[in-house]
Amino acid sequence: MKWDIPLTREQQELVENNLSLVYWVIMESIHVNETIYGFGYEDLYQEGCIWLCHAATTYNPARSLFPTYARKIVRNGLLSYCRQMCFRQRRFTYLTVGLHGELLADGELVTPPDDFHVQVNMIETLDLLASAEKKYQGVTKLGIEALKLKLKGMSVSEIADLYHVPPPHVGAWISRATQKLRKDTPFLAGLL
Description:
The chain is mainly α and 192 residues long.
């Protein structure tokens, strides 16, 4: 949660007087795990403090006592944070080194692709870019040409020299091309 709203003096006092509430919510409702990114005590405490500040800004004294209200806000905020962190964790691949120096991804041996498959993938990708290039003009077409040259091993500086433009121009071309290609359904289907 991003926090941009300044607290009034009264809200600051509510937060300062109830910091222990964050500790108790973490101990009662969340499983702290220092080995998992984002689930260490310090990360959880920091996030809980942000939610405590949120509780202070939205608190209505006519409805309940602040500790009761803040406990629910902090707990729900931390649970949302944990769900978000779990979602992010699913996208990670954990690389480790095995007993004999081999590279493991999520416990499985990583086998590098053989040269034949690398060459076939390169040819297929270049053909796919060439067919997509026919549909575009201007900056997008220049970006696709630059992508093809990068795949063939040229650097952005070398491509810029080839076209007699500054390197940032080439980066902008590639950026424009990738934006268009990400929305190009036939191109994306060819990648699968």
